[in-house]
Amino acid sequence: MSSPLVEYLLRLGDDRLILGHRLSEWCGHGPILEEDIATTNIALDLLGHAIMFLRLAGEVEAQGRDEDALAYWRDEHQFRNLQLCELPNGDFGFTILRQFLFDAWSAQQLDALARSTHAELAAIAAKALKETRYHLRHSGEWVLRLGDGTAESHGRMQAALDELWPWTGELTYQDDVDAALRADGSAPDLGPLRAPWESAVGDILTRATLRVPDGPARMTGGRFGRHTEHLGHLLAEMQIVARSHPGAKW
Amino acid sequence: MDPEVPVLSIVELGIVREIAVDPASDGVTVTVTPTYSGCPAMHTIEAEIRSALLAAGFRSVTLKTVYAPAWTTDWIAPPAREKLREYGIAPPGALAAEPLVSLGGPPGRIPCPFCGSGNTSLQSEFGATACKSLHVCHACRQPFEHFKAF
Q: pLDDT tens digits, residue range A158-199?
C-alpha cells in the first residue's frame, strides 16, 4: 500500500473525478439549456479539483505517475472514491440531490482542509472550496425548487433521498490513513463534521418539505477499493480512448 | 490576451503572479494561477506565454503554477473592469463575505453594461465560460454576460 498521504489524496481526487464524470454524462441531455451548461460547468470544476489532488498524489508518490496515468491506468479496485459518487445518474432529481449531498459535505471537508498544516493540500482545498460553495448554492436551490414543487417532483425527490441516504454513511469513514494524517495536523477529524453537515443539509431538506429517512446510513467500501457494479462500467467508458491509444497526445 | 475574454490581458486578470528574469542564462520564470480550477483555457494561456517569451528572445521559459492565494476577481483593477463593460460584459463587483452554506443567488442586481439600467434579472448562474453568468436587461431588452464576483 502507498503512503497515507498518497491514499488520502487519491480519496479526495477520485471523489471528484468520478462524480465529475457522472455529471458530464448530462452534456447534451440537460432538462433545459441553462442546466445543461450548469452541470457541465460544475463537472469541469470537479475535474479541475481532481487534477489538482491527483497531480499532487503523483508527485508525492514519485513513481512517475501524473494525473492522467492515475485517472486512466488504474482499475476498479484501485479507485478510492465514495460509492455515492459512482451511482448512476437516475433522473435529474436524483442527480441534483446527490450533488447537493456531496457539495454540502465537500464544503465542510474542504473548509477544514484549508487549515491543514500541509501547505499544498491547504492551498488546493481553499481554491476548491470557493467553487464548491457556488455549486452548493446551485444544487441547494434545485432541491428547494423540486422538493417543494409539484406532487410529481416532490415524489421523485423523496424517492431519491430515500435511496441516497444510506450511501452517506461513508462520508465520515475513517481508518489508519486518516489517523496518520491527523497526527501532524495534515487532515481534520471527519467525525465532528457529520453534525454540521446534517444540520445544513437537514435545514434545506426540511424547507424543501422532504423527510430525512430514519434508517442508518451504513454503506461503505469505496475508501478501500470495494465498489458497486456501476464503477467498472463508468471506467470502461472513461478509460477506453486512453487505453486504446496509449501515449497519444492532442 | 485571455483567449475567452479577449479585451483583458492575463496580467490584468491576475493570472500572472510573478515574473523572474535570470540574466545569466537568459531565462525567464513565470508564475501563474488558474482563475477557475477547471478552466480549459489554461493550457492555451501557458502555451501562448511560452511562445511569446521565446519570440521575445528568451532562451528558456519556465512556467510555475501556484494555487495560493486563490484567484479572486478582486484582483481585476478598475480600468480593466471598465474595459470589460465597454466590451459588453458587466464587470464583477466587490466580493462579499458569505457563510459556508448560502442559497438565494448572488446579491443585488447587475447593472446592464449597454444602457446602465439596474432593471435586470439573472437568467443562469452558469454561462458559456465558468467565469460568467447570464442576465437580461428589461430596459433595453438586451441579454448580457456578467463576470461573476468570485
A: 999 999 999 999 999 999 999 999 999 999 999 999 999 999
Task: Tell me how far apart the alpha carbons of residues A165 and A163 are, in angstroms, rounded to a whole number.
Answer: 6
- One domain, residues B84 and B55: no
Measured in degrees and rounded to the nearest 5, phi and psi for residue B135 equal -135, 170
| Whether B149 contacts B73, CB under 8 Å | yes
Segments forming the whole domain that contains residue A8: 4-244
Helical ranges in A62-118 per DSSP H:
67-72, 83-86, 92-113
Residue A74 contacts B where some CB pair is shorter than 8 Å: no
Q: Does residue B4 belong to any structural domain of this protein?
A: no
Domain for residue B8, yes or no? no
Question: Is B10 among the domain residues?
Answer: no
Q: Which of B37, B105, B134 sits opposite A48 (nearest CB)?
A: B37
Grid cell of A64 as nine digits: 512517475
Nearest neighbour of A128 by CB, restricted to B37, B69, B71: B37
The residue out of B8, B38, B65 marking a domain boundary is B65
Give CA–CA dist B27/B53, Å, rounded.
Answer: 9
**B contact test, residue of A37, A40, A47 with most B CBs within 10 A:** A37
User: Which residue of B64, B73, B95, B101 to mutate against A (max A Cβ within 10 Å)?
Assistant: B101
Cell of A168: 452517506
Residue A27 has pLDDT above 60, yes or no: yes
Indicate whether B133 and B92 sit together in one domain: yes
CATH number at residue A213: 1.20.1260.10
Which residues touch A155 (CB under 8 Å, ≥6 apart)?
none
Residue B131 lies in a domain: yes
Total domains in chain B come to 2
Does residue A249 sit within a domain? no
- Size (chain A), residues: 250
Query: What's the pTM?
Result: 0.93
The CA-atom distances, in angstroms, between B44 and each of A105, A128, A212, B20, B60 are 33, 22, 46, 21, 18
Instruction: Say if A151 falls within a structural domain.
Output: yes
Q: Rounded to an integer, what distance in angstroms lies between the CA atom of residue B15 and that of residue B58?
A: 21
